[in-house]
Every structure is written in C-alpha cells, then in structure tokens.
Specification:
Number of helices: 8
Distance between the termini: 34 Å
Strand content: 15-25%
Bound molecules: S-adenosyl-L-homocysteine
Order of helices and strands: HHEHEHEHEHEHEHE
Shape: globular
Length: 214
C-alpha cells in the first residue's frame, strides 16, 4: 500500500506519543515500554492499522506493536489511534521490516502477524517477500521458541510460495487453509482492511500458522 505523499506526515509522526521513535534502544526491554511482562504480538506491514487496533482493544493483556514502512500509511493508522486513547497496549513503528532484529531481541516476540503482504510476483524480487527464507530467518531471531507466525493473503501464488518456503526451512505448519472464511479456523477471525476488500470481491482468503524449527 502506498498513498499519495502527505505533506507534514513525517512531522505528525515524529510528534506522536503512540509512535516509538528510537526503536532500537528498546531491544530486549520492550516490557519496560509497556510497563508489564505481557506477551508481545507484532504486525509487520500493518497498513492503516485497523486489524491491530481491534486486536489491542479486544486483548488488553497482550502488547501489540504495528510496523509499517510508509509515513503516509502510518499517518492514517495514527489518526485512528488518536481517537482511542484508552488503548494502552499498542505502539507503532515506522520502519522497514528487514531490520526487525535490531528492534527485538531473541525470544522477545510471541507472535508475528503478516496480513496481505506485498506479493512481489517477479522471481527476481522473491527475496523481498515477507515470507521468504531471508525473512523467516530474521523472525527466528526475535520469536520465542514456541512463537508463531500467522499469515493471511488472498494471493494464491504468494500463499503457495510461503507454505513451500516454510516447509523447506523446517517450520512446522500448524494451520493451513485456502478458504479461511468457510473453515473451522474462522471463529474469532478479525478481518483486516484488505481482507474485507478482497472477500467482497469473492476472493478466497488463505491462512497459515507456522512454528519455527526446533
Ligand atoms: N495488513 C494490512 C495492509 C496490507 S498492504 C491489511 O491487511 O489490510 C501491505 C502493507 O505492508 C503496506 O502498507 C506496505 O507499505 C507494508 N509493507 C510492505 N513491505 C514492508 C516492509 N518490508 N516493511 C514494512 N512494511 C511493509
């Protein structure tokens, strides 16, 4: 998702208390940011943040961090976030996901959500996909041993690639469905913005939940 450049977006983000600015200084100490030892769940590529906000609202005993690389998109999330100051367990970071290991320590993260990640259809861009082997390795560097990745997409090619990559890299596939909304896993599912948009168009939603190699 890339929105038209919004003048002042960077400034608004820089001033916000809901955005963590010096993210690398909290590595290994995120519990201090939240003031408790609750589990940490992150969403990489949160877009406008509706999903992670709903998750944070529904699960006050879990700490959430939403990551997004574009200021213009993060600003939209921030505008919504500011309407709900009662939510205490949610922060945003504007960053490129490839640096997650600079921000979170080994065993610091309990769950990673990847929702409707950019498909990067050309083979030469495969390494940019957020479910490529390079990214899975980075996730291993921040996830707890029992931690999981929850991935949803309507894009079949990206889904096939992701399942295959996870298997090749020795991850355990805990859940795999190619029609989430008509499956047993749909109960309690929180739809993301893209998920709503694509399911209205009749696209089936794929989901996998994976656990890292032991
Ligand atoms: N998760 C949202 C948005 C999906 S679009 C939803 O399901 O509705 C994918 C989002 O991921 C875009 O906003 C894009 O800017 C962001 N993104 C893609 N690659 C990224 C990366 N490498 N690092 C951080 N954010 C990324």
């Amino acid at each position: 998702m890339r929105l038209r450049n919004i003048p002042g977006a960077r400034e608004s983000i820089a001033e916000s208390d809901y955005v963590i600015h010096d993210e690398t200084t909290h590595k290994g100490k995120w519990h201090e940011v939240f003031g408790n030892n609750n589990p940490i769940h992150i969403e990489i590529g949160m877009g406008k943040g509706t999903f992670i906000m709903e998750m944070a609202r529904n699960n006050p005993d879990i700490n959430y961090v939403g990551i997004e690389k574009y200021s213009s998109v993060l600003l939209r999330a921030l505008e919504k976030r500011e309407q709900e100051p009662d939510i205490k367990n949610l922060y945003f970071i504007r960053m490129e996901a490839e640096y997650v290991e600079d921000v979170f320590d080994k065993d610091e993260v309990d769950r990673i959500y990847l929702n409707f990640s950019d498909p990067w259809p050309k083979d030469r861009n495969a390494k940019r996909r957020l479910t490529s082997d390079r990214f899975l390795k980075r996730y291993t560097g921040i996830l707890k041993k029992e931690g999981t990745i929850h991935f949803k997409t309507d894009n079949i090619d990206l889904f096939d690639f992701s399942v295959e990559t996870a298997e090749t890299c020795g991850w355990q596939i805990l859940v795999e469905t190619r029609d989430l909304h008509n499956s047993e896993y749909n109960e309690g599912n929180i739809m993301t913005e893209y998920e709503k948009k694509f399911s209205v168009l009749g696209h089936k939603i794929n989901m996998m939940i994976i656990k890292q190699p032991v």
